[in-house]
Amino acid sequence: MPRKASTESQSSRDARSGVPDIELLLEKSHWLRRELFQMVSTTRKGHIPSCYSCNELLVSLFYGGVLRYRKGQPEDSSRDRIIVSKGHAAMALYPILADIGYIPTQELTEFTKKDALLRMYADPSIPGVDAISGSLGHGLGIAAGMAFAARSDGRSQRAFVILGDSECYEGSVWESAFFASHQGLDNLVAIVDRNGLAIMGRTEELMRLGSLEEKFRSFGWEAVTVDGHSHSAILGALGRLGQTGGKPLALIANTVKGKGISYMEGRSEWHNKMPDAAQTAQAWKDLETNCISS
Questions:
Q1: Distance, CA of 123 to CA of 191 (rounded, Å)
Q2: 151: domain range?
Q3: Is the Cβ–Cβ distance between 221 and 177 less than 8 Å?
C-alpha cells in the first residue's frame, strides 16, 4: 500500500490562534494510523493496538498547540519533554518525529532492521525521544525528575508522560506520583491510556484498578477523565495545565485498544500479533476511513 503524504506539520498554528484546528487533528490521526500500519506491516514487528489507543493523545499533543517544540530542532533544550512510558507503543512517535523533521522519513521503512535507527523500543539515541521505555513503571519518575529540574533551573519547560493502565500496577508509578505532588510539579502532566487491557487480559479481571482519577486525586493531583479519542475533550482537559493551584495534572483517557481496525478493537490477543494476508487487506479497508469524529 503506497504511503500518503502527511498534512503539513504546523503545531504552532493553533497556539497562535488559541482555537484548535480539529479538522487538522482528524486528518493527522487518520494519517498516523496508516503510517504506523505501513511501518509495522513492512517488517512484521511491532504493537499496533497499543499504538492505536494512544493515537489521538499524541496527535493532540504535537499538533494541537500543546507541546512546545521547533520543527527540525530536536536538540533544542527549551522544548517540552514527552515520554511514552508504555514502551511497546513508543514507536507511535516515529512517524511524528519524521513529520516534524527530527528524523529522515526514510527511516520509517527501516523500522527494526539491523543497524537501523528505529528500534522496537525507543531510546534517546533517536532524536526527539527523551527517555528509554520498555520496562514499565519508570516513565512517570523520569518525567517528574525533568519537571523538577526545569522548575529548579527557572525554566518554563513542561514534561508529559503517557502511561498504560496496566502499568499502574507498578508501585514506582505511585511513588513518583507522591513525589510530584509533594514538590508541587504543576509543569508535569501524566496521561493514562485507559484501554482496559493488558497482554494477559482485562485489567479489572487481572487486578482491579478501580477509579484511577480518584487514585491520582488521593495522591494530591488534579485529575480528570476524558474520552481519549476525542481531540476536543483531550485539549479541553489539557487547558487546565498551569491552572491547577500548584498540582500536577493527570488525564485518565478512556480509549479502545486497536481503535480503527475492526478485528483488533478491544482484543488482548492482538497485543503483539501480526495479521495474515486477508487480515492485512481488511485492515487497509478499515483504515480507508477516519474512525474518529471529534
A1: 20
A2: 18-286
A3: yes
Angle at CA of residue 186, ends 181 and 190, nearest 5°: 75
Q: In what order do the strands lie in the sheet with 222-227?
A: 81-84, 159-164, 188-194, 249-254, 222-227
The CATH number assigned to the domain holding 255 equals 3.40.50.970
Average pLDDT per block of 10 residues along the chain, 294 residues long: 42 50 96 97 93 98 97 97 96 98 97 94 96 93 98 97 97 98 98 95 94 98 98 96 96 98 95 94 95 85
Single-letter residue type at 46: G
Instruction: Quickly count: other Cβ atoms within 10 Å of residue 254's Cβ.
Output: 18
Q: What is the pTM of this model?
A: 0.93
Q: Name the residue with cell 517488517.
A: 43
Per-residue exposure over 258-268, b if at least 16 CB sit within 10 Å of its own CB, e if not:
bbbbeebbeeb
* Domain-embedded: residue 9: no
